Amino acid sequence: MNTTFILIIVILISYTALSSNQNLSTSSKTTTEYILAIGDSYTAGLSFINPPHPYADQLNSKFKGNNIPYEIISKGIGGEKSFSLKERLINFLNNKDELGNKNIPNSSITKFKAVIILTGLNDFTDVFKTSKEISSSIIDSYNVAINNNLITFIVTFPQTRWMSKDPEKYIKGQEVIKDLVTFYNGIKRTNKNVYFCNLDEYLNINLMTPTEIDKYFDIPYDEVHFSVEGYDKLADVLYDMLKVLL
To answer: Which domains are delineated in the chain?
Structure first.
C-alpha cells in the first residue's frame, strides 16, 4: 500500500476523532445559565396557611440533582397584575430591580437565557376590564420577553374556586385563555423559542376529585392558591416543559 495513501487515512481518522471530541465538549455545558421566573403569588409560592413555597425551589432541586447547569431566579409578587409585571420584566432585563434601580442583588447575572411568565389572575379583580383588555395586557408582557430574544415559556393562570363560583368571571377567564392560545398559535409559526403551557390541563380545580382538591389546593382556607403539593405539581409540569433546554 502506498505510504502517502496510509498517511492520508491516518490524518482523516485523527481529524474525525478530534471533531467528535470538540462536538462533545461544546454540547456539555460547564457554566450555569439563568432562567427568570416572573409572576404573581403563584410564582412567589404563596398560600393562606403555609410558608412560601416557590415552584422555582423545586425546579432548582431537580436541576441540581440531575447535574443540569440551569438556575431559576424567582421574582414573584403577590397580587401583581400583568401591566406591573411587564414593567418589572423590562427592569430585570436591564439589570435593574423592581423599582428600576441599578445594582440588583444578583448583579453578576447580566443575561437570562429564558423567562417563565405566569400572570393574569389578578387582572380579574378589576371588574370593569374586558377580556380583550386583560388579554392584551398579558400578551404585552410576553412580547417584552420575545422581543428581547429570550426563550419564552408562557404559562396560563389556573382555574380556581374564586373564579369558578362567579359565572361572569369564569366566562371572562375562558375568553382570555382562548386569546392566549390564539396568540401562541400565531407566534409559534415564526418563532421556535416560544413555548406554551395551559395549566387548565394539569391543575384545573373543576376537573379534580375532592381528594385531589384537598391535596393540591388550600381549600377551604384559600380559594386561590395551591398547597405545598400543588406548587410541587406545578414544578413537575414546568420541568417537563423546560426539557427543551436540555
So the answer is: 31-245 (3.40.50.1110)
- In the chain the first and final C-alpha atoms are separated, in Å, by 47
Is residue 179 within 8 A of residue 135, CB to CB? The reply is yes
pTM, entire model: 0.83
Dist CA 135 CA 140 (whole Å): 9
Cβ distance 109 to 71 under 8 Å? no
Residue 202: partners with Cβ closer than 8 Å, 6 or more residues away: 233, 234, 237
Eight-class DSSP state of 155 = E
Phi, psi of 127 (to 5 degrees): -70, -15
Can you say whether the dihedral through the CA atoms of 177, 120, 45, 243 is positive or negative?
positive
- List, for residues 158-204, the tens digit of each pLDDT value: 988 899 889 999 999 999 999 999 999 999 999 999 999 999 999 99
Using DSSP's 3-state secondary structure scheme, residue 153 falls into: strand
Amino acid at 161: R
Three cell numbers written together for 172: 371572562
The CA dihedral of 78, 81, 84, 88, to the nearest 10 degrees, is: 50
Kindly state the helix (H) or strand (E) to which residue 53 belongs, with its residue range.
none
DSSP category for residue 217 = B
For residue range 16-56, what is the model confidence (pLDDT) as tens digits?
A: 443 333 322 223 556 889 999 999 999 999 987 788 999 99
Are 35 and 70 a contacting pair, CB within 8 Å?
yes
Statement: residue 105 has pLDDT above 70: no
CB distance 91 to 98 below 8 Å:
yes
Amino acid at residue number 90: I
